[in-house]
Amino acid sequence: MSQRPGFPAKLPAPGAPRPTRNPAPAVGVQRPVAMTMSSTSKAVAGTSPAHRSAPLRSGLGMDYGPLRARMVSNLAAQGLQDPMVLQAMGLVERHRFVETALAVQAYEDTSLPIGLGQTISKPNVVARMIELMREGVSGKLGRILEIGTGCGYQAAVLSHVATEVYSIERLRGLHEKARENLRPLRLHNVHLIFGDGMLGYPKGGPYAGIISAAGGESVPQAWLDQLAVGGRLVAPTITPAGHQALVVILRTAEGFDRQVLEAVHFVPLKSGVA
């Protein structure tokens, strides 16, 4: 196995000037970006209750705790059963990952725009996909790969249910937004990568779980290659009927078991970086 990049990177002192960024990589080149913003790898540093409450945006004086608790109760009522997933959904403050004007809608079961034509998935979808990936696991998963970081919300939730999270985003603007959103949370086990998600991230593999926030015509072979035996891959995929559906793929010693579940609607999976 190739040596994985060292994490976490040392955070710069408050007020310190930021180094000049390197030029954007060519299409298909994956570059983990460090929190020091110095070169190619980015770790989002560690977590504690104190850090979880660190403010990400101004103007959010409302107490969202009761709304978040109600959201978790609704998820349980809708059939979500994994206690670790429900706990994680209750710990991560979703309103901090959307624009201030949309914060009051953060705990409704709805997707919300995050810019660049992308959305933050509905809480029910996030919880459902993570629960499917964790099926049969009582404790934390090992290393997992998230395709499509977006604003960073799902990566934050995943940090509570896995020992290590690699999250890759092809849109530089969203990659930067996720870094800013996650920085105050100091999640030592989350590593953000700017690159082509269709290629996965082999340096971090093999993965106990892979989860995608974008749907393509089929599941890329690179993802299957990077999935560990016993691991589960959860992704939206186009069915023969031409509709998106949630697909769960379990890798066994003999091959891959595939299960097609409910219809979903995700942004399309694209190659390259932008």
Explain this structure to me?
With 274 residues, this protein is of the alpha/beta class. Strand 10 (227-238) and strand 11 form a beta hairpin. Strands 1, 2, 5, 6, 7, 8, 10, 11 and 12 form a nine-stranded mixed beta sheet that branches. It has a two-stranded antiparallel ribbon with strand order 3-4. The chain has helices at residues 49-52, 65-77, 83-91, 123-133, 153-158, 172-182, 221-226, and strands at 31-32, 42-44, 112-115, 118-120, 141-147, 162-169, 190-194, 207-212, 214-215, 227-238, 244-251, 256-263, 267-268. Helices cover 22% and strands 26% of the residues.
Entry summary:
This protein is α/β, with parallel strands linked by helices and 274 residues long. Helix content is 22%, strand content 26%.
Any key phrases for this structure?
9-stranded mixed β-sheet; globular; single chain; 26% strand; Rossmann fold; 274 residues; 13 strands; alpha/beta; 22% helix; two-stranded antiparallel ribbon
